[in-house]
Amino acid sequence: MIVMDLVIRNGTVATVSGGAVLDVGVEGGQIVQLGGTMSAKQEIDAEGMFVLPGGVDPHVHLTPPRTGPGLDSWADNFEIGTRAALAGGVTTVGNMSFPRKGEQMSEGLKRDVEDGNNNSLTDFFHHPVLLDPDLEALEEIPELAMAGHPSVKIFLSFKRFDRNVDDFLRAMRVAAQAGSVVLLHCEDAALMGCCGELVREAGLTAHRHYPETRPVVAERIATERAVGFCEISGAATYVVHLSSQAALDVCRSGRARGLPLYVETRPIYLHLERARFDEPDGAKYAGAPPLREEHDRDALWAGVVDGAVSTVATDHAPWTLEQKLDPALGPAELRQGMAELETSLPMLWSLGVALKRISLNRFVEVTSTNPAKLFGMYPQKGCIAPGSDADLIVLDPEEKRIVDGSKMHSAAGYSPYDGWEVTGWPKFTISRGEIVAEGSTVDAAPGRGILVPRRPFERP
Ligand SMILES: [Zn+2]
């Protein structure tokens, strides 16, 4: 019998066939054995705990889209953000890679791959952002897909989209051919521009009017278009951070017609509602889209339960409280995004699995298996099976913590859930066989993370 590197004993293991009490054997960074006799140099006793595949968060922002004097950017970089990720049980992140002015996607990607190689604590991948669908960019989509980057992000929320819909649609046809997944930010630019003007003209200057500048109708209309683009182009289409019941209904009907259409939602839309903006420091909850109503939140939970929602991803893009509450900003100008990598999985466990709203299987699917499949990394990532990377969470379902963002890893210094009691936290986070976090203490070197090789999209 070989002596393995690590064995995790007596935990309830979330395998592809469901939860079972099994020992997990790890050797050379991979899972090599489930159940049976084994011995190892290092052992973890996981009695009473759950052993889950490490989180795959396919939507984070850890590289600045632009730099220069007077331009500020998110509080977390690759190192800080991935440290927060490991403390929260996320072992792989998918970062949005923005080309800068005059750059092609491949150039931005080169810089961001280097950034990840030098600084990431987790394994990582990048989605190149398509800002300008010129001929060169259209040629790059299949090249990048072949080179292991089979995804591309498009913003319907940018005015440049409406100025050039034809070419963006061409890009989607090219993506369909290349097996590249198209990630779409679905909010209608013109409607939001108009709503911003209406709010300004009505003299509404308080931050709490933020939701009126990005109403549900702007999301619904853009989502309708996204579904149409998916249908005509044939591209696998991934709607990022969907926030409303109306937009979810649009996607449900597209999925019912058999389209390769997938929905991501974000923790804030599962846990918070629009009324938060009426708090004195409500601007700290600003994300795009804004928080919605209770019925929207309920519809998204129903989608997580029944499969209409494929993934729960953070869109981690934090700012400090001072930046969020900046009084110089009008309601249409608030800085969007917040820190969620350290709380995303524990919150979904606490308010989902622990409350019996979602099953263990659904938790694993939306946090790990589905993103790994959609973005071409399964079964290297996204499951607990022999041959897969030993990316694991040993989760203690009894551990209660009060969220305090000032003590967490993100440089934001606050969490939108400050003061919430959350039950169920990672006791150990393991990445390719290494114990990289114990509780919230992270012990991992920047640059240990590797770029995950990805395959073109295959329909699950
Ligand atoms: Zn984003």
Description:
The chain has 460 residues and is α/β, with parallel strands linked by helices. The chain folds into two domains: 3-52 and 384-442, Urease, subunit C, domain 1; 54-374, TIM Barrel, CATH 3.20.20.140. The protein has 14 helices and 17 strands. The chain has helices spanning 78-87, 105-119, 135-146, 159-163, 165-178, 189-201, 210-213, 216-233, 245-256, 267-271, 294-306, 321-324, 344-353, 360-374, and strands at residues 3-15, 18-27, 30-34, 39-45, 50-53, 55-60, 90-97, 123-128, 151-155, 181-185, 237-239, 261-265, 311-312, 392-402, 421-431, 434-438, 441-442. Helix 8 (216-233) packs parallel to helix 9 (245-256). The protein is globular. The mean pLDDT is 97. The structure holds zinc ion. Residues 59, 61, 96, 315 line the site of zinc ion. Zinc ion (ZN) is lined by residues 59, 61, 96, 315.
Any chance you could write out the topology, listing elements then pairs?
Layout: E1 3-15, E2 18-27, E3 30-34, E4 39-45, E5 50-53, E6 55-60, H1 78-87, E7 90-97, H2 105-119, E8 123-128, H3 135-146, E9 151-155, H4 159-163, H5 165-178, E10 181-185, H6 189-201, H7 210-213, H8 216-233, E11 237-239, H9 245-256, E12 261-265, H10 267-271, H11 294-306, E13 311-312, H12 321-324, H13 344-353, H14 360-374, E14 392-402, E15 421-431, E16 434-438, E17 441-442
Helix pairs in contact: 3-5, 5-8, 8-9
The chain binds zinc ion (ZN).
Zinc ion (ZN) is lined by residues 59, 61, 96, 315.
